[in-house]
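Please check this.
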Amino acid sequence: MEIITVERLRRWLEEGRPVTMLDVRPAAERAEWYIPGSLHIDAYAALQAHDPHALAQVALPANAPVVTVCAAGKTSQIAAEQLAARGMQVYSLEGGMKAWSLAWNTAELEVPQSKARIIQLRRTGKGCLSYLIGADNEAFVIDASLEPQVYLELADAHDWQITRVFDTHIHADHLTRSRQLAQMSGAMLFLPAQERVSFPFTAIYDSNTFDTGAMQLTALHTPGHTPESTCYLLNNQILFTGDTLFLNSVGRPDLKAEAQETQMRATALYSSLHRLLALPLDTLVLPGHTSEPVPFDGVPIVSPLARIDEQVDVLHVPHSSFIAHILARIPPTPPNYERIVRLNEQGIFPEDDVTNLEAGANRCAIA
């Protein structure tokens, strides 16, 4: 039995190497987040009891190594030892699903009638989506949620210099890396205008536009998920919606808000969504999160506004019904969100506690 790091397994999956991932967590834990393509057996209790027959009935392919997965990398070692005793090549995922929340993959899009390209960076276990947008020798980043070095290396591979870094709002489910990335790249840091953060940034207001020739990025203030939430429209064709609008749902308005403020935000969200719906229906929407674990398939998570308009029924109910629907379907709050918000407002990145703080699936959407 050996240990495999998240980065090594991530590379295997990105390269398309044959590997069988066996998730041994309880079914309830797997229901919320998992590694795409993994097999599952609810063997947690039996493994914890050191039952030597806990995995006796598991049939696994003989031509690929096996990686066992649990919540934090402990029980998976017991599983790996049992499989190794059967003569299998087996690894236990170090840190388990907590550590896997930092794993990522990419997909690329071309911008029609432009030299610009978009790289969608997906934290596969966490659902966070960020974007590297480049043309000629220049690049922008939106909602950085991965180590800054990831963006720097991707930009370098395309001969791009990151010159501007944007956030769509003050995030509550993950620690932003935008400030770090701006400092390491020498880029300007842009945040929606607000008085929440306590570090220097350049405020961005509704209708502000950044034009490099091949890339024209325009800010659209869309309060609701948070008061400062802002979407970005690229070349009047592609809309980065942050946590305001998803492909099959809308953003939640309640985080860090009392009941009355939540209702006010829901009202603002209704207006913001209808502002977005007034854009051309062939506008492509790139959201800030997805609720499903992201496979290593290279397929962008994107949808035309027309399809979202058809599929998200709550967009078409009257204002009062929209508010009632939203308030009745508020999901559980993200783990540790109050501390994450506070750290994001202070611009502090706690290097020693990231996996524990960010563990768990994304909970920013209301269907």
User: Anything to note?
Assistant: The chain has a mean pLDDT of 95. The first strand starts at residue 2 and ends at 4.
